[in-house]
Every structure is written in structure tokens, then in C-alpha cells.
Model the fold of this input.
Amino acid sequence: MPPLKPHLRSMMKADQVRRLCLCPVCGKLGDEREMVRVGPMGCLAHDRCVFEQLGEGILNLPQEQRVKFTLAAVGPDMMRRLVADAKG
Ligand SMILES: [Zn+2]
Done:
């Protein structure tokens, strides 16, 4: 494949940057599609960072945010509660 034209490359880069945002908890970048929206400002943070801050409070988040938590972030016990609560 020939190398990408410069303007195409910059478009791709812009697209990647648009999907990243800074986590207010750990100060690192994350993919906004995978991050959880919390708080009155609606800021996005990593699932593991939100869990670190809120603990069981994540069970009170709206369903569309709760589904973003991963087993790796919250552990099997909280994951079970998230799932069980969603069904009930
Ligand atoms: Zn974070």
C-alpha cells in the first residue's frame, strides 16, 4: 500500500484525538466511548477510577453508564451486583 497522503493522516489523527478525553481522577487520557459519565458536570472518567471514587455508589448511576463498567475494573462481586440490579 502507498503511504497515506498528509491530509488523510492528519484527519485520522484528529479523529483519534476527538475520541480521547482526560480523566479527572487519574489525569490520564482515555477513550470517551469506554469512559463513564458521572457528576453534575457530566465529566468522563475511567470505569476503574469512578469505582475507586464512588465504590458502591456506582450502583446508583443510570443504566447506560453502569453497562460501561468492566469486570477488570470493579471485580467479580461488584460486577455481579451491577448485573443483578439491572435485571431487577
Ligand atoms: Zn482515570
